[in-house]
Amino acid sequence: MPRRAEDPRWSDPGLLVLGSLADGPKHGYAMVRDVEDTTGVRLGPGTLYGAIARLESRGLIEALDGDESRRRPYRLTARGAEVLATQLVAMQRFAGVGRRRLARHAPAFGAGA
Amino acid sequence: MTTRARLRAALLRAYPPSFRARYGEELAALAGDSDRGWRDHLDLARGALRAWTVPAFGGDGAERRRARLEATTLTVLAAWSASLLAAATFSKAVDDPPLAGLRGATWDAGRTATGVAVVLGAVVLATGFATWLALMVPAVRARRRDVVLPAVAPAAAVVLWLGVTALVGLFARHLPVRGSPALTWPRGALVLGVLAAWAALTFLCAAACVGAAGLALRRAGLSAPRLARTTLVAALATAGLVVQAAAAAYCLALLTGPHGGLDPHDAVLATAAVVVLVGAALTASVSAGRAVRALRVGPGDA
What we know:
The structure holds two protein chains of two kinds.
Chain A: H1 13-21, H2 28-39, H3 45-57, E1 61-63, E2 74-76, H4 78-105
Antiparallel strand pairs in A: 1-2
Chain B: H1 3-13, H2 17-33, H3 38-53, H4 61-95, H5 104-141, H6 145-173, H7 187-220, H8 224-255, H9 264-297
């Protein structure tokens, strides 16, 4: 089913950036491609760098020395990995509960769907 | 350069100076690589707005702290400039010509509120100039034209704006009033065109003032202790702005109340001035609060 703009969304840009950096450092363009490939969400440049600035100011990611200042790579910090893990566990629990409930009350969309 | 590239460059320039210094090149490269047209432009505009209203600073602790203090100094300077214009407008609206027939408790309370506003206005004026001088004096001594020119540019922009506003005021005074077809074609279009051009000039002057002041502040590269002192002066100016806005709002409430006697046209002007005063005071307060917090926690955790 196609997603509509007014549907509730789980795709907080900060969380998507953390998830993208979970498998290693990336620069902005690589993050946009990775997030789009894995979630179908296309982060605009303003949204991406707003999220990067917030995550960096909270110490969840850090910049690495890149070959060029136009493509600076970023990586998760230990604190960022901890925050991501906590969020993913919460999301997994939420997804599990939601799917079990759907399986009981709307089997067509539930665990086996 | 294509129109699309020019628009993109303008939107990138709309980001706060500290954000551009940290992420400007990367953001420009990513925006240049993307091909989503107006959706990217909208995204950049939203990002710039958010970067101003909910700023986040990257880099190490000292770099973040510096960016925070610079942003607050700039924000308070902008709020201070807006308050100066609004205070002059408020004074003109409520006191020129002096209100006749206003006596008793309302008059006494109004005079007290006006007195408080005037004294605080002087304090705010002095502290604002102190912030500006903290930037200018070392730059003039070191003959830093790259700092002095953008630091004096806002004054030139304000003089230009005041001149054009006076001309628009003269134009408005000579408009036909009640009962005549002032807003019919083609005169109505001319009136709306002049007002729209004035509004656009106001916005451009304000943006130029903030941009030039930010550029001067960033180029000046004030030392950390001097920047901290500048921030404390800005916090003092903010306290003055808050009380000044409260006094003006109180004064307006009295003058538009049952015993006020303020002319309805003047009341509209005074209300607009109070809205600007309150908005400037709130904006400066939020920013000063963040800077004071950054000063308290120190460079490691700012």
